[in-house]
């Protein structure tokens, strides 16, 4: 693939929106903290407990909605990145097919004509024709290698076979560490791509120099490091050469599955270090095809905590209204001055535990009980029944007075 073609291809970064930045989340968090402090100060000054609790619930809902919006933006970023990456890979594959059909055919014709010329001529012309044929064959091989990388096809040659072939051709390759004998196909393919790219670069830019391959295997990651000495005149050139471009492209492909690739010059050696996950999060072939929409992912992520919150609320309501509910008709039958035992026979055995509605002051000797009408979601106590010396002395419907 030519450098011009690479420049014409859209980049992933240019086709996606950025996720919410940390500064946005920080501003949102600070605003919520300031609002909470202001409400606490207001409650301390007014003691309007019911309204304060209602505002607290509103704040919790706002925080939850804000978190969902942030989560949705993150999911949308991932979704757009997946679609953009998939589109780029499709364009790359299409361009590879076009190059294969066009250049492959033309190069094959040139090789065929050079072969005919080699047969029909003698002397210097025959040698030049043979050189042309060899150069074309080499160009075809390089073209096929580039197109295979662009298409992301499955590996046809095993890693051991590739290393044995290079060793047999005179390349000095030493291996340390242990490479797992059995790896998932996608992991094996990723490792093969890393080794093929790095070994090709070593042969191109540092021919005749030894290459060291070091493996390290963790439960979740296969790590490989490839080192080869670099000639002094190649060190600076390697930073901007097509090999670095190819490694960058390979690094982007590994990143799609949760991997990483770094390359650098260290102590006169060119070092490539790659980490390939044993359980890839996705592969270039299926990126963007199996992802759910951002809205569905957001709803799915909110489903469990929302369900838990609803169940907790229902459980709390059932507890707060158990054996403490007084119907309006029952409360209407109560009268000031009736005996307290008579009132107790009409009232439930348990008092409402949630008492947020303010009441008027009463004599310390009075005994006051509080009941709810079953209001949702807290089951607030709204009926007050006070007695003194065995007689009901005050009946208060707290719903009829200010809750501030």
Automatic annotation (TrEMBL):
<feature type="domain" description="Signal transduction histidine kinase subgroup 3 dimerisation and phosphoacceptor">
    <location>
        <begin position="92"/>
        <end position="153"/>
    </location>
</feature>
<keyword id="KW-0472">Membrane</keyword>
<protein>
    <recommendedName>
        <fullName>histidine kinase</fullName>
        <ecNumber>2.7.13.3</ecNumber>
    </recommendedName>
</protein>
<feature type="transmembrane region" description="Helical">
    <location>
        <begin position="299"/>
        <end position="319"/>
    </location>
</feature>
<dbReference type="GO" id="GO:0016020">
    <property type="term" value="C:membrane"/>
</dbReference>
<keyword id="KW-0902">Two-component regulatory system</keyword>
<keyword id="KW-0597">Phosphoprotein</keyword>
<keyword id="KW-0812">Transmembrane</keyword>
<dbReference type="GO" id="GO:0000155">
    <property type="term" value="F:phosphorelay sensor kinase activity"/>
</dbReference>
<keyword id="KW-0418">Kinase</keyword>
<feature type="transmembrane region" description="Helical">
    <location>
        <begin position="25"/>
        <end position="44"/>
    </location>
</feature>
<keyword id="KW-0547">Nucleotide-binding</keyword>
<dbReference type="InterPro" id="IPR036890">
    <property type="entry name" value="HATPase_C_sf"/>
</dbReference>
<keyword id="KW-0808">Transferase</keyword>
<dbReference type="InterPro" id="IPR011712">
    <property type="entry name" value="Sig_transdc_His_kin_sub3_dim/P"/>
</dbReference>
<dbReference type="Pfam" id="PF07730">
    <property type="entry name" value="HisKA_3"/>
</dbReference>
<dbReference type="GO" id="GO:0046983">
    <property type="term" value="F:protein dimerization activity"/>
</dbReference>
<keyword id="KW-1133">Transmembrane helix</keyword>
<dbReference type="InterPro" id="IPR050482">
    <property type="entry name" value="Sensor_HK_TwoCompSys"/>
</dbReference>
<keyword id="KW-0067">ATP-binding</keyword>
<dbReference type="GO" id="GO:0005524">
    <property type="term" value="F:ATP binding"/>
</dbReference>
<feature type="transmembrane region" description="Helical">
    <location>
        <begin position="50"/>
        <end position="70"/>
    </location>
</feature>
